[in-house]
């Protein structure tokens, strides 16, 4: 989140809240070398890992202080797909939302399918081609903490322009939209009720040709500059150098398999909490 309000945080010891439809509730990464990527994120964020739903194949849940924050899975050997962090948006009915996605011009690429007792999910892409997931929770309510180092802080869609794609998300999830008032800045904040939950950023010709429209996940850290240097030492790559933005200090990096994400020290972040 570079130009939007900081989403409400929850206490470290709180149980994962049940999200309203449209709220980001989980982030997941599918990789080729799950052991190697676990080592990277364990070293970068201090994540611990626990087994995930068996129905998803080799899959682990990343933990901060014993609380779920993200998931990492293993791609089948014959699937040569781009590696990217994918946000999941909450729904009360995966089947119905998947059908709505199709009717609104999006594509459902995987599912809907059950993830054991954790819930029901599907993977889709919007009208600009950006991939996202939908998640109907059962026992697995998703990311349990925010506002602490190692936890997701925000999700932002990077696309060529926001005017057409925002209609898709409004039709599927019923978002209210707040626009940044600027002649040369194409930026929208998505709200569920009165709460900002995600953003859309139209970057025009700056959109990477090799990636197209895509969602960017922001992870909270104590020191973005130091974390970026550590990521590079661990085999990652700094894509955009550390810089001060409206709501914190940020740096965009890629992990050893090329998955891009942004580190942020939020301006409104409370003092570091002992785990």
UniProtKB/TrEMBL annotation:
Domain of life: Bacteria
Region (Disordered): 1-20
CDD domains linked: SgaA_N_like (cd07247)
Biased composition (Polar residues): 1-11
Signal peptide per UniProt: none
Annotated Pfam families: Glyoxalase_6
Gene3D superfamilies (UniProt xref): 2,3-Dihydroxybiphenyl 1,2-Dioxygenase, domain 1
InterPro entries for the chain: Anthracycline_SecMetBiosynth, Glyas_Bleomycin-R_OHBP_Dase, Glyoxalase_6, VOC_core
Domain VOC: 23-137, 151-266
Protein name: VOC family protein
């Amino acid at each position: 989140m570079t130009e939007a309000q900081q989403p409400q945080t929850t206490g470290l010891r709180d149980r994962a809240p049940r999200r309203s439809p449209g709220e980001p509730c989980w982030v997941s990464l599918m990789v080729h070398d799950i052991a190697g990527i676990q080592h990277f994120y364990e070293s970068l964020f201090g994540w611990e890992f626990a087994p995930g739903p068996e129905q998803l194949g080799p899959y682990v849940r990343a933990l901060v202080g014993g609380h779920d924050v993200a998931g990492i899975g293993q791609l089948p050997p014959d699937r040569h797909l781009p590696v990217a962090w994918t946000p999941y948006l909450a729904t009360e009915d995966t089947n119905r939302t998947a059908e709505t996605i199709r009717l609104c011009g999006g594509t459902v690429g995987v599912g809907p399918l059950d993830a054991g007792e954790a819930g029901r999910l599907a993977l889709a892409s919007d009208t600009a081609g950006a991939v996202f997931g939908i998640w109907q929770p059962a026992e697995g309510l998703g990311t349990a903490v925010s506002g602490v180092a190692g936890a997701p802080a925000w999700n932002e869609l990077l696309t060529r322009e926001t005017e057409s794609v925002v209609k898709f998300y409004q039709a599927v999830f019923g978002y209210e939209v707040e626009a940044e008032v600027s002649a040369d800045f194409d930026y929208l904040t998505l709200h569920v009720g009165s709460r900002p939950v995600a953003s859309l950023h139209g970057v025009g010709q700056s959109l990477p040709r090799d990636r197209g429209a895509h969602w960017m996940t922001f992870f909270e850290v104590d020191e973005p500059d130091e974390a970026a240097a550590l990521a590079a030492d661990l085999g990652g790559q700094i894509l955009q150098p550390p810089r001060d933005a409206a709501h914190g200090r940020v740096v965009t990096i890629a992990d050893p398999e090329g998955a891009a994400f942004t580190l942020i020290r939020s301006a409104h972040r409370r003092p570091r909490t002992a785990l």
